[in-house]
Amino acid sequence: MVKGRLYGVGLGPGDPELVTVKTARLIGEADVIAYHAARHGRSIARSIALPYMRADQIEELLLYPLTTETTDHPGGYQGALDDFYADCAQRLAAHLDAGRTVVVLAEGDPLFYGSYMHLHKRLAHRYETEVVPGVTSVSAASAVLGRPLVERDEVLTVLPGTLPADALADRLRETDSAAVLKLGRTFEKVRDALAEAGRLDDAWYVERATMGAERVAPLKDVDPGGVPYFSLALLASPAERTFVPEPPAVRQSGEVAVVGLGPAGRPWLTPEAQEALAAATDLVGYGPYVDRVAPNPRQRRHRTDNRVEAERARHALELARDGARVAVVSSGDPGVFAMASAVMEAAADFPDVPVRIVPGLTAAQAVASRVGAPLGHDYCVVSLSDLLKPWEVVAARLAAAAGADLVLAIYNPASRSRTWQLAAARDLLLEHRDAATPVVIGRDVGGERESVTVTTLGELDPGQVDMRCLLIVGSSTTRITDRGLVYTPRRYP
To answer: Which one, of 16, 22, 51, lies nearest residue 132 by Cα?
Structure first.
């Protein structure tokens, strides 16, 4: 029979919400749940794990034979515990031999002053075993106090309160920060050791950190009569007493970063672009592009219409001149028919404002990637928009590129107000290209409505193209494979 698997899982300091996701899952999946308890039979570990347990699980209560009592065991206190752990290991081994999964619950971390480690030493070499760490009481106490344990090169010392008083005092003198566990009956000795080491005024007492009965107080003010075992003394980082003063108001140095957002969502955004967006105090751009940046209430958002590039650029520079860190956002790459040139032109009037361009993945590259490698050889990029240049210039450039047998990436092929230009461009290209020349139509590549169509120049239907599209028109060497992929060979005949 296949043997079972043993897990020692840390439950954290007491709050069931501080149980790790992995520990919660393992508790819920286990065949056997084992936990320790004193003679009264109540188990803090079980109470923490209870929200994650099932009603049909086997429970193994591991009841300590003694805690602080005297014993007539021939081996004394340690001998009684050794026999106890051997018996517990034998009980759990019976389940493991039967193929059951056994989870041993441990407060805090299983291997940090925990009882689980005594079972681990007796079973881990015989069965497949995994230890799942948990939040320790030391970390919980630091969090509850809101004081750091250590900073920079400081040293943290963890001490059991059961050490002799002089040993405690010596170690407390030498360390920067300290946690003293296992208080209870040792509290007065620990308090005296702190006083002897000159550290009592800095010491904090934390009882049942993160539990309902949590208590925090300066240690010197605590009554020894009510100190339970689940408490500790904490000397936080000496540096925590050094508060950083509020810096004097300084005029922030502004800048403009023209940021390429890529063709679609966050996966197309470069790390440099993400960094520029995160550092910005102001976002400036065409409304739908600004909307693609996740909202951040710290940032001001300046949404504008698509046809006010010059005004938008000046506004961004004015904000930066007054100390703002401005990100001017563009779809794709800001240097390809986008805001970079508008900002650079306006920047001549703002010589003291730093301007940098943060590139992005442009639409031509995105569309090409969806079909193969149509841009594998020389190509040119042309915009069919005649809003900023005469159509005669567009037509001349198309003719020159077609005559040079370049692949063309065509931006802005159509819009609601520009409906005839693409048909005219197709007819012009057909004067230089075969009707069977491959054409790729990419719409909203990377977005929710992405579509990519491979057709030919002769069959290109302008009615299927809108402003969300980019076209790639092949050269004489561009090929469509049997699998429908498109590529332009790197070697030209």
So the answer is: 22
Q: CA-CA distance, 197 to 167, in Å (whole number)?
A: 11
3-state secondary structure of 130: strand
Could you report the per-residue pLDDT of 107-134, keeping only the tens digit for each?
A: 999 999 989 999 999 999 999 999 999 9
161 contacts 203 by C-beta, under 8 angstroms: no
Nearest in space to 398 (alpha carbons), one of 388, 411, 387: 411
Measured CA to CA, the distance from residue 316 to residue 339 in angstroms comes to: 11
**Cβ pair 410, 382 in contact under 8 A:** yes
Give the pair of three-digit tokens for residue 14: 């007491």
Residue 51: count of CB within 10 angstroms of its CB: 12
DSSP strand pairing (231-235 vs 177-181): antiparallel
**Matching residue, tokens 């300084």:** 250
Whole-structure pTM value: 0.66
CA 177-180-183 angle, to 5 degrees, is: 155
d(CA 310, CA 343): 7
Residue among 431, 417, 422 at smallest CA distance from 382: 422
Nearest-angstrom CA–CA distance, 289 and 331: 6
Query: Tens of pLDDT along 437-489?
Result: 999 999 999 888 999 999 999 999 999 999 899 999 999 999 999 999 999 99
Q: Mind listing the pLDDT tens digit for each residue in 27-64? A: 999 999 999 998 888 899 999 999 999 999 999 999 98
CA atoms of 221 and 337, how far apart (whole Å): 71
- For the beta carbon of residue 472, count every other beta carbon within 10 angstroms: 25
8 Å CB contact between 156 and 149: yes
Distance CA 18, CA 29 (A): 19
